[in-house]
Write a structure and sequence with these properties.
This protein is α/β, with parallel strands linked by helices. The protein contains 11 helices and 10 strands.
């Protein structure tokens, strides 16, 4: 009995060991399966987010630091031709209050790190092309609102007609381009790389059949020439202008194939290509278009970002979409879906974004893209604000 008892105990011990081994083996199998599931999921994610090219380099790193942007639209670029508003008061003409530091403080507090300042210069220039000192001083005030918040600030030439790229205006455009950016470059020469210059906004043949269709070889060639004049002029103004980042535009800031095909990158360093993309047009800009977001629209966004990424980012050239947005059609939920797809497509190719906000008062002509009430200092669509700065 005693011998049997020892054998029985040994058998039971072996059975317990086998059970423990089988349990351990089950866990091993579980961890192995989990490991391969994670590998599979990570592989799928990489396939969706990896553009297939390197996005490194000094300029790309700088562009990545700009973060998400917001446009102070319809203020410093306002144009009044009937004489009701003159001098610095023209800032008020397009239904916006005078820009204050408190406004820009709130934009920064919301999470925006890049401020684009559209500016029109020609209404503040004399017959010899000299920019009014008071206007330069006012522009500086607003630039400083952003700089004091640690923001990056883009200063451009916006509604000026002197850079219209038509043959009969070409030499005038070249002369004015040099005049304006010589003075602006000299005035802001000591500002560091938080201040960027943008040579032109939507340079195009206004009123022609090619205005919004990507241009022609002839008009695009003039835009290319003007971009080079802009770069060369700023680089010659001393101070920090030798290494300042400069934004150069395609014809009309277009993302059309024809505009991209005709675009020639200027010679020089620290350059960023800037385009505008209110896409898809039917959803984003057409008041009579659809207010519902779907897969076809997402596919169009992906195609545009891929086009920009392959042409520029893959070659170490940053791209900034200086204006984008979707008008309010009482469809905030659908706009949020659109915005997530837009951001994802841009991020996949390392492309920066700046929301267009033209401000304006309720019930007036302007304000279709606005998300911030500058008079009440209130965010009209906090969900969109949060999605932008997320």
């Amino acid at each position: 009995m005693k011998k049997y008892s020892r054998l029985e105990k040994r058998r039971q011990s072996v059975e317990r060991a086998n059970k423990r081994w089988k349990a351990d083996l089950s866990w091993v199998r579980f961890y192995i399966m989990a490991y391969f599931v994670v590998l599979f999921l990570c592989g799928c994610g990489k396939e969706e987010t990896d553009p297939g090219y390197d996005m490194g380099g000094e300029d790309m790193v700088f562009a990545g630091q700009l973060g998400i942007g917001w446009n102070l639209g319809n203020s410093l670029e306002s144009v009044c031709k009937d004489g009701r508003y003159t001098g610095n008061a023209v800032e008020l003409y397009w239904q916006n209050p005078a820009t204050t530091k408190a406004m820009i403080d709130e934009v920064r507090r919301a999470g925006f790190t890049l401020l684009r300042l559209p500016v029109t210069w020609e209404g503040h220039m004399d017959g010899q092309g000299n920019i009014d000192e008071e206007w330069l001083g006012r522009v500086k005030e607003v630039v400083d609102y952003g700089m004091e918040n640690g923001m990056y600030v883009i200063l451009n030439a916006h509604h000026d007609t002197w850079f219209e790229p038509v043959p009969e205006n070409e030499e005038n455009a070249v002369r004015k381009m040099a005049d304006v950016w010589r003075q602006v470059g000299e005035y802001f020469a000591e500002y560091d790389n938080h201040l960027l210059f943008e040579g032109m906004n939507e340079p195009r043949w206004i009123g022609s059949a090619e205005e919004w269709t990507g241009g022609s070889a002839g008009t695009a060639a003039i835009v290319n020439r003007l971009n080079q004049v802009f770069v060369d002029t700023v680089r010659g103004q001393g101070g920090n202008n030798g290494g300042r980042y400069l934004l150069v535009a395609t014809y009309g800031n277009s993302v059309e194939e024809s505009a991209l095909d005709a675009f020639v990158m200027p010679e020089g360093e620290h350059l960023i290509v800037t385009v505008h993309a209110y896409l898809p047009y039917g959803f984003a800009m057409d008041a009579q278009g659809t207010g519902t977001w779907g897969k076809e629209g997402a596919a169009e966004l992906d195609a545009v970002m891929e086009r920009l990424g392959q042409r520029f980012v893959a070659n170490g050239i940053p791209v900034l979409i200086g204006e984008f947005g979707a008008i309010d059609k009482g469809n905030t939920g659908e706009r949020l879906k659109w915005l997530e797809d837009y951001k994802d497509a841009a991020k996949r190719h390392g492309i920066g974004l700046v929301w267009w906000d033209e401000g304006g008062r309720p019930g007036e002509t302007y304000g279709r893209f606005r998300i911030f009430d500058r008079e009440r200092m209130e965010w009209l669509f906090p969900e969109i604000r949060d999605a932008l700065v997320e």
